[in-house]
C-alpha cells in the first residue's frame, strides 16, 4: 500500500496503519479505532453497510492529513476507512498520528476523527432489528431512507 | 495472555492489546503507543534499556485500569509495557481503552499514560553516544547515574 490515506473493502490491519507513521523522530503514536457498536440509544444494530465516493473520500482523508501537518509540528498521519458490510465489533476506521511528543498525538488524532465526520463522503446504512437507514458520517445531520445523495450533488463539498 | 496489564521482555503486539478491549458495547478504541525516539533535545539515543519491578509494576498498571473504570463509564483498559533492550522505533508501551463513545476513549487513554509516568516503577537507561543514565519514568524527576533504586525503597509508593 503506497498511500497513507485509503478506503478499502477488506479488514483494516491496525499495525499496517501504525507502521506508516512510525519513525525515529517520533516518540508517540495515537491511534483511534472506530468499531461497530451493537447498541445505540437502546436500539440494536445487526450489521452495518458503508458506502463512499472512494476517490473523493481518499482525497478528503489526505486533506485532513495536510491540515494536521499545518497545525502540529512534525506530525505524520495515516487513515484507513473500510466500506461494505461490517459486523458488530468490526473495525470501520483506523487513524494513526505520530508526533515527537505525546500531547500533540492525542490532539491531532482527535482532530482527525472529528474532521472525518465533517468532510469525508462516507455513509453508513444501519441494519436494525426493525428496519434500515442511511446515515451520513458528516456529523450525522442528515438521514436518507432510500439512498445516499448522488455523487454529483457532492461536488460542491 | 490472561491479564489485561502486563510487563514483557518481548515485542508488544498492538493488536493483542486492542483485542482485549474490543467488544460489542464499545464503538471507540483509543490506543497510545510509546516508541523509542532517536533524538531528545538534540541528543542522540543509540538504544534504551527498561527495567521494572515487575509484580509491582503490573499491580500499578491494573490500578490505573481501576481508576479509569471509576472515572469513565463503561471503559475497558489494557496496558502492556516492555522491558529489556529496545532499539530506535521499538514499542515501549501500548495502552488501549475502549468506551461506548469516542470522547471518553481519548480522555481515558491520555489519563493512563500520565498515570504510568506517575506511579509505575519502570526505569529506562538511556544509551547516548556520550554516556548512559537511568531515568525514572515517574515524571522523569530523578536520574540515577549508577543504578535504579532498590525495590525495598519503593514499597511506600
TrEMBL record, chains A, B:
Pfam family, one: MoaE
InterPro entries: MoaE_sf, Mopterin_biosynth_MoaE
Superkingdom: Bacteria
PANTHER family, alphabetized: MOLYBDOPTERIN SYNTHASE RELATED
Protein name as catalogued: Molybdenum cofactor biosynthesis protein MoaE
Organism in which the protein naturally occurs: Virgibacillus tibetensis
